[in-house]
Amino acid sequence: MRYFLLLFTALAIVGCVTETRVAGTNKQVVEQQSDPVEAARTRVALGLRYLQNGDPAQAKYNLTKAKQHAPQLPEVHSALAYYYQRVDEPELAEKAYQDALRYGANDGSVMNNYGVFLCQQDQYTKAIKQFMAAVQEPTYIRVADAYENAGLCALSHSQPQHAHDYFDKVLSYDAARPRTLLGLSDAYLQLGLTDSADFYFQRYLARHSLSADSAVLGYRLAVKQNNRQDIQKYRLILQSRYPQAYAALNRASAAPSGTSVQATVAQTTDAQTMSAQANSAQSPSLSTNSANSANNDAPTSVTDIVYKIQVAASVERLSAAYLSGRLKDQSLDIVEVEDDGWFKYLAGSYASVEAAEKAKKLVKPKQAFIVGLTNGQIVYTKY
């Protein structure tokens, strides 16, 4: 599935407070009664927070209460539409979006969100119409998001030239958006313009970390270029770090001739952003570091892999004193590698997995494991 950018806003509420209980539970909800519109917005934020945390029943309860407070507030209906999308009720989502447009005819966020829904329902022409309506709305400031959504929608419906045109518009607003750079590379690849595809893929790699999507695209591009070294490199990355993407790649390769293998470029929607804002958190990344134990056999056909022992990992940089305490052999050098938002600390340097395994006794943490690097990127993991 492709993910789009949905936009909702979490609001600070002031006024009198009344405690109520959720029907059928002992849960208490703090509700603002100073203004029905503000009370509705409080309920919307709470409902989206529940939805983000995997509690659709409480999400629906709060969104229904929001509708009771302000039945003509566009964002209430837009939030309900997003809820129905999440629980796979497309007919109810369609009605909620129609209500949101009826009460908020000039709301660019509603148009964008509705375009996302239509694209997911394979109504491509109608989806593009909504994205362009959002772009043309003077009060809508997230124009780049709407253009990017249009490009991703076009890409998912085998319209690479249209996708290129929309992504090209995005670059005038933000030249470094990762989804747009990957999308442009994919569009050029589908159009048979390999050099241009490689140009935008390299721009992506210069600014952003490798992900499952970009690894798949890198593999496809390497195949098109008949670059055996990169084919092997991206195959190893997919095997060790993104086994699900690698399995999908294998299934596509085994499909009848003519079946294309496309990277699932992450599409974001204004509703997902709203839900994340209501929960005071960023949208979850699609990247994963999980390794498949079935793929833990050491690669033998690549000679440029260096094996190291991972002794620590943290979302913040660790001190030299702390890292030194992780080693029994203080002569070992530790290098820092940034990988998928983590700082990973790797000790030693070995030509084979077997040599690295023997050296593990030189480090203290029992959970230390072996990683393989090529060109500074982790391409192999053995727990």
Beta-strand percentage range: 5-15%
* Unreliable spans: 9-24, 257-268, 276-303
Strand order of the largest sheet: 5-6-4-7-8
SSE ordering: EEEHHHHHHHHHHHHHHEHEEHEE
Evaluate the radius of gyration.
24 Å
Q: Give the % helix.
A: 40-55%
Number of strands: 8
Counting H and I runs of at least 4 residues, what is the number of helices?
Answer: 16
What is the general shape?
Answer: globular
The main pleated sheet reads as: 5 strands, antiparallel
| Mean pLDDT over the full residue set | 78
Q: Structural class given helices, strands, pairing?
A: alpha+beta
Measured between the Cα atoms of the first and last residue, the distance is 30 Å
Organism: Neiella litorisoli
Region (Disordered): 272-297
InterPro entries: Pilus_4_PilW, SPOR-like_dom, SPOR-like_sf, TPR-like_helical_dom_sf, TPR_rpt
Pfam family, one: SPOR
Short description:
The protein has about 375 residues and is an alpha+beta fold. It has helices spanning about 35-50, 55-70, 75-85, 90-105, 110-120, 125-135, 145-155, 160-170, 180-190, 195-205, 210-225, 230-240, 245-255, 270-280, 320-325, 355-360; strands at about 5, 15-20, 30, 305-315, 335-340, 340-350, 370-375, 375-380. Helix 7 packs parallel to helix 9 (about 180-190).
